[in-house]
Amino acid sequence: MKMSSHKFDLEKFNGSNDFTLWKVKMKALLAQQGYAVAVEGEYTKDTTDAVKKEIEGKAHSAILLSLTDEVLREVVDQPTAAGIWKKLCDTYQNSSLTNRLYQKQRLYTFRMAEGTQVKDHLDSFNRIILDLQGVGVKIDDEDQALILLCSLPNSHENFVDTMLYGRTTITMNDVKDSLLSKELKRRVSGNEETSGSGLFVGRGRTSDKKDGGNRSKSRSKSKVSAKSQVL
């Protein structure tokens, strides 16, 4: 079996970091190395016992080495890669009613604090959606878009009204793209205002002199005009 020479660094799962994302990365790493079948359990008919044993051993080692000591102690009794995988999922991504309720509560009470960067808010939102999918809860695209809009602070009220006005449907891409565009426009406008104020100050003296000169000329013209009318 030919293995790739590429090496990928994967952050170890410590029980507190994002298990859903770690699982996606770990499975991708196993697939890249040709060992994903050990956790999927779908060997081809022509796979020999020797090859299966090699794959199982490599996958088992790869998963163990991707866990911190605290988590490793919880699964070290599992002799197979599939056993470790299942125990990790049962522990950190169980689909019990209580966990599903907790994950839904996280989503429906999720709010963006004033001053938070849009990309950070979107990242936190995506994490909740992935965690829900991990416990078997799927939120359709339109509901995600509406919930994301509802999570925005009062300062985005006009933005929300604009996004909903005249629409019959809305997608997550619509909301994400518009939010990021709004954020970019705000940053550019802020930079322009800063630069503009500097230019204004720099030109202010010249402008004042010119204005003063124009006012003097206007006054002279007014006096001339007044004298002409008197005559």
Q: How would you describe what is shown here?
A:
This protein has 231 residues and is mostly helical. Among the domains are: 19-92, no CATH class; 97-183, no CATH class. The chain is built from ten helices and no strands. Helix 6 (97-108) packs antiparallel against helix 7. Residues 1-5, 194-210 and 219-231 have low confidence and may be disordered.
Structural class: mainly alpha
Radius of gyration: 32 Å
Question: How far apart, in Å, are the first and last alpha carbons?
Answer: 111 Å
Number of helices: 10
Poorly predicted runs are 1-5, 194-210, 219-231
Average of the residue pLDDT scores: 83
By oligomeric state, this entry counts as single chain
Secondary structure: number of strands: 0
Shape: elongated
Main beta-sheet annotation: none
Order of helices and strands: HHHHHHHHHH
Percent range of helical residues:
55-70%
Strand content of the residues, in percent? Answer: under 5%
Give the gist of this structure.
By secondary structure, the protein is mainly alpha-helical.
List the helices and strands and how they pair.
Blueprint: H1 19-33, H2 37-40, H3 49-64, H4 69-75, H5 81-92, H6 97-108, H7 118-134, H8 141-150, H9 157-164, H10 172-230
Helix pairs in contact: 3-5, 6-7, 8-10
